[in-house]
Amino acid sequence: MDVPKDQIATLMEHGLYDSAEMLGCFLVSSSTVSAEASPHLKAETLILLGDALFHRREYRRAIHTYKQALHHCARVPKQSSGISRSSLSLSTRSSVNASSVSSINENEVRFKIASSHFALSETKAAIAEMESVKTRSLEMNVLMAKLHRNSGYNRGAIAFYKECLRQCPYVLEAIIGLAELGATAKDIISAFTQTSSRSTKVSLDQIDPTRWLQRYVEAQCCVASHAYKGALELFAELLQRFPNNVHLLTETAKVEAIIGKNDEAIMRFEKVRSIDPYTLTCMDEYAMLLQMKCDYSRLNKLVHDLLSIDHTRAEVFVALSVLWERKDPRTALSYAEKSIRVDERHIPGYIVKGNFLLLAKRPEAAAIAFRAAQNLRSDLRSYQGLVHSYLAFGKTKEALYTAREAMNAMPQSAKALKLVGDVHANTSSGREKAKKFYESALRLEPGYLGAAIALADLHLMEGRNGDAVSLLERYLKDWADESLHVKLAQVFAATNMLQDSLSHYQAALRINPQNEAAKKGLDRLEKQMKGIDPDAADENDENDVEDVDGDTEEAELISRIPSTLFSKQSTLASLYSLNKFALRREYKLSFSLSLSTTSSMIVTPIHASSSSSSTIGETSDGLKVQSHVSIGANDLLIVGAGVLGRLVAEKWREEHPDCQIIGQTVTINHHNELEKLGIKPALKETEFDGKFSYVIFCAPPSQSPDYAAELRTAASKWNGEGSFLFTSSSAPFDCFDNGECNEDSPVVPLGKSPRTDVLLRAEQVVLEKTRGAHNYWLNKETVEARPDHILNLIHYEDAASLAVAIMKKKAGGRIFLGCDNHPLSRQEVMDLMDQSGKYDKKFKGFTSTSGPLGKKLNNSRTRVEIGWEPNYPSFAQFLGVTK
Predict the structure, then answer these.
(1) How far apart are CA 143 and CA 130, in angstroms?
(2) How far is residue 258 CA from its own chain's centroid?
(3) H or E segment and range at residue 49
(4) How far is CA 490 from CA 65, 255, 577, 816, in A?
(5) Euclidean distance between CA atoms 517 and 507, whole angstroms
């Protein structure tokens, strides 16, 4: 044999699956391994290759290869083939024994095929494959239990889980599975004492002499039946015997979180991470608790740690979702959906998705998410989500039915009683019933502050403000909780007792300085105390402009960057190749933008002349200044070289050391400062012989009688390649209630405010221009450039949204990439334009065969870390061309 098959087995034993797969390709293609002459040997080699593919997670290839092996097995006479249909021992790594007398285990091969189908979420195919296996090993029974449970065949799942425990009573996942499927502790324990032969029994003392396993079974059954108090007692007993058991600590923290003991659960999760800092199990639950406590510093660190451990796990996507909820609800929702795609049985993914959909006022979709979570395993959170979803779209009967179902499932739960009260409180006729349920919840659990606050809200609805205040103050004597202070502050603010309200907001912030409700309430209260309507729009909150040369308060300047030279109504978009976004904290406006270029050239200094012998920085009124300058491919024109313009110049020169940077101003007041910074100053009247590939317009609209005309003039100095970038203010967004805004948020209508009219008309000038490199080439018809030069593209809107996302991230000292991950050659760009049918002109071609080639960028890591995805995934998709 050309390739000894035992060498593949050796590679497999050492976990070298890549080498095993490559060597397997040699083996199966060897002329000495003939399917006709030796089908048994052919089957063996295929199984070895399938094992390598299986471990490489190439499940489709593994299935195909295993089935080929079984086909060859069927051609071998059974008496001489050495084929076995019995299961292998658990220590066997491969379906082929490496002994001198080789044998093939068909059952093991079918198990691997079923396991591959399971990994691909093809449950029916996996079950069908396993049906022909009559004698099953322990791992086969575990797989069959999971397959039947995923298919909804709970009786079959129970039978297989019990068979697992007969074979080995320490299969803890079988214990948890049986408890969740409704088996009693007695039923589960009885499976321990019966051997797999079903003919003899062993004593429980032999299996579990100290009874810790029995206590574990009882604890899991308590959790599954919502008897959370009993579960905590049993877990506490087990923790005395196993004090640093990460699994027990995690299970305890989960239960504490369910019943609202959030501080205890957080401390428990912290202990878990101190013992095992690399665990991922239930860390998304920990993230959700930190979010509830508004502890964003610890939440951010947790997510960073989880990403460094394994960024592909569902728990990590849920934690990312929770982190992004405050910053960008759309991104948060997308991460929740990713967690479900990774693991369709991951309950926290459905819970956070439902919560975000509720916040987005999409209760019907939220109900679907909560119902999916409940179908997997009912708990209080899925009941609460369903009830609030039903109430949000007016299905009171369904909400009441669901709340009663929760109460019946958890008769000793104060939270379930409160849930019924919430439904009754939703109607004026049911408020008396709601009061009784809230009071019952408080009798059952006197420290349940959620019921106390709900009862106070009920008093407020019916005008009993004094009763609400008395109730909350009574609870404050025993529980110094931030939520009680916030509620009291809201009550006092509503009754114009502003000083009392202030003291309670301050008390809440002393307990938790990150409490969002307290911070927002305090902001509103301060306006009330100044006699300002807190709901009125504040015109002075936006970026007003003072300095005619561009020196303006720019804290929010990047927050609204229109998609340069692109109109949604037009048929042509403008793209530019974006290489780097760099963020450094040592600058106030730490924003850097670098654009890709195709060539560079040596440039000469600016020489200006005019009929009156004026220099470039000097002019008489009305005199146009002519500049004779060789403009290079990377030269930058900054219109409005104020604070932002100077920072852009500094970062641009880091990327392009040999470039010229021209700073255009209205006056000569700051020209000496610009020259010291290496910026060549020019007055706005200056005319250049050529045009620039890169122009940034950051001049303010103040003291300009026609701001839109200023933009047109600046745009006329751009050659259509590279980028023209216009920075604006967030003032045009039609949002004045502390609400969330994004790039698609509505803007103030024209005519409503002279201030916003100026900005909107200026933006429209840019949006209507619709030019880009591809359009520039089309107009020229032939271009002296290499057609195979690779370009890395990104849509202007996506570049703007990524810039904002990086700014919000505040990740100092980092470099990020911005691109659409679909690099194209120049020729491919023009071919796609032609295929789109949207252009009358025909491009003739690129004429050069020399010059540098480009590079292919990929920003997958940036997307995961920043939590950003482009709205336009590729140039082809934007044009509507399938590619």
Answers:
(1) 9
(2) 24
(3) helix 39-55
(4) 67, 32, 51, 43
(5) 13
Domain boundary pick from 147, 170, 203: 203
Q: How many domains does the chain have?
A: 2
Answer whether residue 101 shows pLDDT above 60: no
HEC sequence for 679-745 = CEEEECCCEECCCEEEEEECCCCCCCCCHHHHHHHHHCCEEEEEEEEECCCCCCECCCCCCCCCCCC
CA distance 781 to 801: 33
105-111 CB contacts, 8 Å cutoff, 24+ apart: 106/70, 106/73, 107/133, 107/135, 107/136, 107/140, 109/47, 109/50, 109/66, 109/69, 109/70, 109/73, 110/70, 111/87, 111/137, 111/139, 111/140, 111/143
Tokens for 845, please give them. Answer: 């071609």
**Residue 101 belongs to domain with CATH number:** 1.25.40.10
Q: Write the pLDDT tens digit of every residue in 620-659.
A: 344 445 555 678 888 889 988 777 678 778 877 877 888 8
Per-residue tokens: 140: 């086969």
Tell me, yes or no, if the pTM score tops 0.70. no
H helix count then E strand count, the chain? 40, 19
- Residue 394 CB-half CA count within 13 A: 0
Give the C-alpha distances (Å, rounded to integers) separating 377 from 143, 181, 258, 370, 539.
19, 9, 13, 11, 50
User: And the tokens for 591?
Assistant: 């924003």
Q: How far is CA 324 from the centre of its chain?
A: 7
Question: Residues for the chain: how many in total?
Answer: 883
The answer, yes or no, to whether residue 280 has pLDDT greater than 90, is yes
Task: Find, among 100, 30, 114, 26, the residue nearest to 70 by Cα.
Answer: 114
Kind of pairing between the strands at 578-583 and 592-595: antiparallel
At 563, the pLDDT band (50, 70, 90 cuts) reads: very low
Is residue 803 domain-resident?
A: yes
Q: 300 and 323 in contact (C-beta within 8 Å)?
A: yes
Query: What is the residue whose two structure tokens read 């369910």?
Result: 258
Query: Is residue 18, in this structure, part of any structural domain at all?
Result: yes
CA distance 255 to 271: 15
Cα(50)–Cα(66) distance, integer angstroms: 6
Of 610, 615, 619, 705, nearest to 667 by C-alpha is 619
Residue 144 CA to residue 158 CA, distance in Å, equals 10
Residue from 600, 595, 558 nearest 698 by CA: 558
Q: Structural domain of residue 731, as residue ranges?
A: 557-865
- Amino acid 608: pLDDT: 30
User: H-helix or E-strand containing 783?
Assistant: strand 782-783
Three-state SS across 588-653? CCCCEEEECCCCCCCCCCCEEECCCCCCCCCCCCCCCCEEECCCCCCCEEEECCCHHHHHHHHHHH
CB atoms within 10 A of CB 414: 23
Q: Closest Cα partner for 256 from 355, 386, 421, 380?
A: 380
The answer to whether 732 and 748 are in contact (CB under 8 A) is yes
**Are residues 783 and 777 in contact, defined by beta-carbon separation less than 8 angstroms?**
yes
- The residue from 142, 175, 203 where one domain ends is 203
CA–CA dist 235, 432 (Å, integer): 39
Residue 162 tokens, joined: 């019990």
Quote the CA–CA distance of 827 and 852 in Å, as a whole number: 15
| DSSP one-letter code for 557 | G
Please report whether residue 351 resides in a domain.
Answer: no
Distance separating the N- and C-terminal Cα atoms of the chain? 45
* Position 378 in a domain: no
Above pLDDT 90, what percent of the chain?
25
